[in-house]
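Reopening this ticket.

The earlier resolution said the output was attached, but the attachment link was broken on my side. Pasting everything inline this time so it's all in one place.
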Amino acid sequence: MIEDGDRVAVGLSGGKDSLVLLAALQAYRKYSPERFELFAVRIDMGFQNADAAEARALAAYVESLGVPYHVEQTDLAEIIFDVRKEKNPCSLCSKMRRGALNTVCGKIGANKLALGHHREDVLETFLLSMMYEGRLSTFQPKSYLSRSGITVIRPLIYAAEGDLSGAARRYNLPVLHNPCPADRHTQREYMKSLVGDIAKAIPIAKDRMCAAIMHPERYNLFPPKGDINAQTDD
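Inline output:
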């Protein structure tokens, strides 16, 4: 995912996942055979109820790591909730934040954008795509964005969310509370709850679901429409 000479920007939301990712990549730099630069980028959504003290603590932590930190001020919260009055804001918010991140990457000359998605994010996105879009689709560990010339990497994609939560607590990372009014009331949150309920009934379910997604040789889906002879049952 990371090559010699890369300029890697970590999309720092202030949540546990992106904080663990930043700390891990900074630690990795110390013994990595690849020489790369690391930056932290946070998109300030413009929520009026955001905790300023928490934001200062986050900035102090990033500074203690010795990582350059860029905060992009935006009015995305106003656009999404006050102007457009989105009932299901997550999809639009994600696209707008990603666009802002890509713009900042261009400003600072970063060629790679590292995001803190983990194993459960993969499962939840897969279920969201299947149930709401009729697609079998989820995150890729690494993907190239041809329009911006940026490569998105997800170094934690095989890590369990519980392990990241434990790391954040163990190292007392300055996690920001999410001020979004839609927090905990989204389709993704429902999928998180659904996956949790399945795992309670079938303890190995998460591992098996991830294995099904992450091992293409195990796929056994329908052939393209009209091509009934494309696959055999040998």
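Reporter confirms the inline version is readable. The beta strands are 7-11, 37-44, 69-73, 112-114, 142-145, 150-153. The two ends are 36 Å apart (CA to CA).
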